[in-house]
Every structure is written in structure tokens, then in C-alpha cells.
Amino acid sequence: MSYYITRIFNNKLKLGVILFIFVAPILDVLMALIDVSKGATVPFPPLAAFLGSFMTKGLQGVLKGYLPLFLAIIVADDCIEDYRIGYKNILVTKRGKNKYFALNMLKSFTVSFLILVIPLLLNLLMVHIVFAGGTFLFIAQESIKVIPSMAEQFSHPMFYNLLCIFLFSFVGAFVGSGATALAMAFPNRFILYPLDFILWYIPCIMESSVRGAFQPFTEYPLSKYFPGVILVLAINVIAVLFSFFKVTKYDQV
Q1: pLDDT value at position 192?
Q2: Which residue ranges in the chain fall short of pLDDT 50?
Q3: I want to staple 203 with a disulfide (CB 3.0 to 4.6 A). Which of 6, 86, 139, 210 is the partner?
Q4: Per residue in 149-162, is it b (16+ CB within 10 Å) or e — as a string?
């Protein structure tokens, strides 16, 4: 596992993408602070969190919209590079096909989960410190009370923030694993990146868009978006299973 982590830290492109993922939630807080310094009312801290933010949507949209491409660069591109330079055959010969596949899956799932959950948890901590005591809501309290799902979410804001953070990170871990599986099955960047993006884009444009599951404090219950979440998980599980049989049963060393 340490071998894969070292490769990530030795690659400037990977580090740049990781830096963006870590910095985006911090920039989100700073942008909200700028608004407050200009006279805006201090927001209710859970709403100012990155996934729950109603003040700045740009960075959140970039991270959600291009999530599979970011994760593919970080955790999947190694497989393509190993194939291109012939290093894959050395790794397979040394470790065996099954272990080679399993280690790549473990690396992808773990790294994808951690690089998403850590900055989002730090962001949640930051907003509760920076905007402590904030009361500004994007909707009147009377309106919140008449929308059952919104009333429930505002009654337990910390729980729903944490739920969306871990759900986003968990789904991201599956997406990263699926990207790595596709990279092992089709070690070609011109195939991997468009295919990975399309497989993410389809659940995003559904009525029950998977992206809605990561946004707390909306008028809809999270259950509305479960079909999108299930579709993403199913797509990536199928990608992993397909790649497993291709890599371990049919690929020649």
C-alpha cells in the first residue's frame, strides 16, 4: 500500500488535484467570510458547510461534476502508465494477478475515501468555529416547518451534514475503484476518461440525481435520490467484476 501512496506523492498532477480537493472547501469558507465582512448576516453554520452551502456553488459544482475525472487521475492513471511502460507485467509476475488486482482496488477505495472525507470534515469543523452563533437561513423558518423533510433536516443539522459527507465520500470511493477497474480493463486514457465521465453523467441527469443525495437541507428527503446512488454503486460494482474476470482470467502476461 505504501508503494501506491509514494507514487501519488511523486506525481505533480496527482498532487495538484488532491490540493484542489483539499483547498476548495477552505476557499468556500473564505468566500463566505468575505460576504460577511461586506455586511452579510452570519450564516447558520451547518448551511455554510461545503456540501450544504447556499452561498457559493461554483467550487462545490466543480468537485461534484468532475469527481470521476479527479479520482481517475489520482488512483486509476497508474494502471495505464504501468501498462504503457510494461511495468504491469513485472508487478503481475511478482505478485500474481489476483493480488495485483486486489491491491489496486484497496488503494483506490481507501485513497478516494480519505481524500474526500478529510477536507469535508475539516470544512465542517471550520464553519462551526468561524460562524459560531450564526443564524441566517436561506428560507423563512415558517416555510421550513411546513416542509416535513426540511423540518427534519434542520432539526438535526449536524447529523445530516455528517451523513451527506460520509455518503459522498463512500460513493466517491466506489467511483474511484470503478475508475481503476476500467483502467486495468482498458488501459487507454482516450477510453478511460470519457467512459468514466459518461458513467457518472448518466446518474447525475436523472430526476433522482445522485448529486442531490449529497446536498442536505433541501425540500426533498434523501430517499428521493437513492435510485441515483444505487445506480452509481451498481455501475461501479459491475465495472470491478468485469475487470476482475478480464484481468485475472483472460489477460496474458
Answers
A1: 95
A2: none
A3: 210
A4: ebeebbeebeebbb
* Residue indicated by cell numbers 477497474: 181
d(CA 71, CA 76): 7
User: Rounded to an integer, what distance in angstroms lies between the CA atom of residue 47 and that of residue 61?
Assistant: 16
Q: What is the pLDDT of residue 1?
A: 63
Cα–Cα distance measured from residue 95 to residue 213, given in angstroms and rounded to the nearest whole number: 39
The pLDDT value given to residue 181: 97
Give the DSSP letter of residue 224.
Answer: G
Q: How many CA atoms lie within 13 A of 122 on its CB side?
A: 14
In 3D space, the residue among 55, 226, 216, 228 whose CA is nearest the CA of residue 151 turns out to be 216
**Of residues 1, 51, 5, the one with CA closest to residue 158:** 51
Residue type, 247: V
The SS3 assignment for 146 reads coil
Is residue 203 a contact partner of residue 228, using CB atoms and an 8 Å limit? Answer: yes
Q: How far apart are CA 207 and CA 31, in angstroms?
A: 30
Cell 485475472 maps to which residue? 248
pLDDT of the residue at 53: 60
Grid coordinates belonging to 81: 502508465
**Number of neighbouring beta carbons within 10 Å of residue 9:** 10
Q: How many residues appear in the chain?
A: 253
Q: What residues does 136 pair with on adjacent strands?
A: 43
Would you state the pLDDT for residue 252? Answer: 65
